[in-house]
Amino acid sequence: MNILIIGSKGFIGNHALNYFKQKNDTVYGCDVVTDYVDENYFQIDVTNSDYQIIFEKNKFDVCINCSGAASVPLSLEFPLKDFYLNTLNVFKILDAIRLHQPNCKFINLSSAAVYGNPERLPIEETFVSKPLSPYGIHKMQAEQVCNEFNHFYNLKTCSVRIFSCYGNGLKKQLLWDLYHKFQSNKTIELFGTGNETRDFIHVQDVVTALDLIIQNCTFENDIINLANAEEYKISYIAQLFSSFLNPNAEVTFNNITKLGDPLNWKADISKLEKLGYSKSISIENGVEDYIKWVQKLK
């Protein structure tokens, strides 16, 4: 297969690029980062992305869009930029596919942020979207764009709602912050109560799931949760870091909920399991491996 990965220099995109290369697929990367080494790499302008020539001059069986912003706080501060990267960019990609390669399968990386605070758990794909931030709204709008191009132009689309993805290479969010706080403080203060929960999935399991979707999904504007149907308290994740780094550290919570943050997440992954998915990395092993990776950065 010829696979184009847009956002190939990002966290998930880079893992996807390496995964499909190891499968001996012909893989092309695309990002805003300057790179003159790999001939299968397309650089785009961050201020005015244009995918027309890429799809006009090259043939792809699958396009995976891993690009976009991934920060709730920044979406609150810079909503226009977030809209451009997470919604308008998806429209531009699909319009180029429509004009030049209408048989190319398109996978858009969406987010569990579209759900907001669900009324019950586990969260099914059929739940009404109630995002709590511009980021979640723009991800929801990108899914609507996928529906538009599938419905009116018969393009093959699929949106995957990724829950709390983590793993080696991620230099932000909870695990990154926890590591550095445990390095510099004897008392660790975190937002919330500690009872907030997330459904964590390792990035290696995410790219494996993407492969299963390519092989088995109908691409009729499918919506699929990417998670492990497991609910872990933030306090438990902090305890894991404490056990690996500093068992004597005191972890406290300030009872402040950050704007845009949901309270509890646990996904229903029945759709994903029907495609053949099963977890390969436990949260305990994943966190330990992540800590070892960060330690090697020094």
From TrEMBL:
Signal peptide: none annotated. SUPFAM superfamilies: NAD(P)-binding Rossmann-fold domains (SSF51735). InterPro entries: Epimerase_deHydtase, Lipid_A_modif_metabolic_enz, NAD(P)-bd_dom_sf. Residues 3-226 form the NAD-dependent epimerase/dehydratase domain. CDD domains: SDR_e (cd08946). This is SDR family oxidoreductase.
